[in-house]
Amino acid sequence: MSLEVEFCGIRFPNPFIVASSPPTTTGEMIARAFAAGWGGAVIKTVAPEGEVIENVAPRFAAMKADRKRIVGFENIELISERPLSIWEKECRILKDRYPDRVLIGSCMAGGADKAGWQELVVRLEDAGCDMVELNLGCPHGMPERGMGSVCSQNPEITGAITRWVKEVARKPFLVKLSPNVTEITVPGRAAARNGARALSAINTVNVLLGVDIDRFEPLPSVAGKTTYGGYSGAAVRPIALKAVSDLARHLPDVAISGVGGIATWRDAVEFLLSGAATVQVCTEVMLRGFGIIGPLQRGLERYMAEHGFERVSDLVGLALPRITDHSKLDFDHKPKAVIDASACIRCDKCYTACEDAAYQAIELPHPRMAPVKARGVPIVHLELCTGCSLCQHVCPVDCIKLQEVAGAPGEVKGSLGLSLGPDATYPGAARWDRPGGASGAPSIPAATSGDRLAANA
Questions:
Q1: Residues 39/44/47/53 CA torsion (nearest 10 deg)
Q2: Helix or strand or coil: residue 3?
Q3: What are the residue numbers of the active site?
Q4: pLDDT digit string (tens) for 279-322?
């Protein structure tokens, strides 16, 4: 079993890459990443000589779960402040000292700057970079200059840049795409049609992370003001997985490097199964350091051993055949919620969720606010349960499973939204307040929408 991967003809000792980001601000930082065991690293994006890059402070803001664990991270930091000439020297040193690690250059120029793109790519290749990533995805600061995400939000620009680079590149290159588009396969196809053999997805998501409600200042506050920034971390992983799988399904001949919200080996496996051949990590390195590469590698090795995989490439894309249109899903699959009484802690959260946001299929065998010691296990009425899974997700101890139940009656059909008010037959209808009296007649006048439409005909 081996973690080695081949990506566009380049051998990586493992699929884990430090993404272009603050952790790759200098050659010295990249050297420490390589020494720690990372298979590759993408330098912080460089711009054409003469492009002035200046950062503000502060430039980070965090979204926390329970005010503790960071699940989302916004930054308004720009690309590298260091000139290309410095990067050329440091890239040569890195390749001399770590010849078995993959060094990926990263560059950005304007959407109409053919000469700028070509010079950057040639110089990075000549400096020893094994590959070059074209940054068409940065969502803050740079788009104001006609650079970054605006270049992948317009497929014609994406295609032109790819074509210009293809004319001069002697080594493989990746096109890094922005998620801030309606359909990421559009710029993906434009890049592929014009010669890109590989794509990186995704760059950060453009957001406003929050507002200081006492000072009325959006975050991160730079002397009282802010700008929309790039959002990363665990919170963007579903967005990235959707993008990667979409690209892999529609562009099967293009290699994909998955980026966005990877924090654990499990996350990495999800990206591999969704079609990525390598994975890039940024935010988790910012929060926990280069040392996370150890658990990432060990976890992937254990997973591969447990599932009988010999090569990382054996995993790539295995989940893709199971992604389909909604209309093609199995509408005859009718699992029911089953509660493990031995594990239930009587918190009643499943009841509350089902009662107020689902189908009123769960009943309590005790008064609603009874002390915990006086509570029983909630009862699932199988004939009302639609298998939506809400109860399973709110359960804090994972004691609810969805499974086929032999002999279970089908759920209520054909009445949801088809019957009137308190006389409806859907679950819970009998508990309506009846402002019109015992007859249940509605207190609101008869619908007049037909009259209104006729009047405007």
A1: 180
A2: coil
A3: 138
A4: 999 999 999 999 999 999 999 999 999 999 999 999 999 999 99
In this structure, are strands 10-12 and 16-18 parallel, antiparallel, or unpaired?
Answer: unpaired
The model's pTM is: 0.92
Query: Dihedrals φ, ψ of 232, to 5°?
Result: -140, -170
Q: Quick check: 49 and 83 in contact, CB under 8 A?
A: yes
Cα distances from 330 to residues 200, 261, 319, 322, 333, in angstroms, run: 33, 30, 17, 12, 6
> Please, are residues 259 and 200 in contact by the beta-carbon 8 Å criterion?
yes
Task: Say how far apart CA 400 and CA 195 lie, in whole Å.
Answer: 50
Ramachandran region of residue 421, left (φ > 0), alpha (ψ -120 to 50) or beta?
left
- As to burial, measured by CB atoms within 10 angstroms (0-12 exposed, 13-18 middle, 19+ buried), residue 337 is buried
Strand 400-403 and strand 229-232: the pairing is unpaired
Tell me the Ramachandran region of residue 136: left when phi exceeds 0, alpha when psi lies from -120 to 50, beta otherwise.
Answer: alpha
Name, in order, each residue with C-beta under 8 angstroms of 331's C-beta and a sequence gap of 6 or more: none
Q: Helix or strand or coil: residue 396?
A: coil
Axis-axis angle for helices 237-250, 185-193 (nearest 10): 40
**Of the candidates 256, 297, 286, the residue with the CA atom closest to the CA atom of residue 13:** 297
3-state helix, strand, coil in the chain (%, to 5): 35, 20, 45
Rounded distance between C-alpha atoms, residue 422 and residue 129, angstroms: 70
What are the structural domains of the chain?
A: 5-322 (3.20.20.70), 327-427 (3.30.70.20)
Provide the β-strand partners of residue 61: 74
Query: Which is it for strands 198-201 and 173-176: parallel, antiparallel or unpaired?
Result: parallel
163 closest CA partner among 136, 196, 189: 196
d(CA 346, CA 400) in angstroms, rounded, equals 12
Q: What is the pLDDT of residues 423-457, one digit of tens each?
A: 555 656 666 654 544 444 445 555 566 666 777 76
User: Tokens 């053919």 belong to which residue?
Assistant: 114
**Alpha-carbon span 426 to 412, nearest angstrom:** 7
Cis peptide before 58 (omega within 30 of 0): yes
Residue 145 phi/psi, 5-degree rounding, is -100, 10
Distance CA(244)–CA(249), nearest Å, equals 9
Q: Where would I find the H helices in 262-380?
A: 265-273, 283-288, 293-307, 349-357
Confidence tier at 116 by pLDDT (50, 70, 90): very high
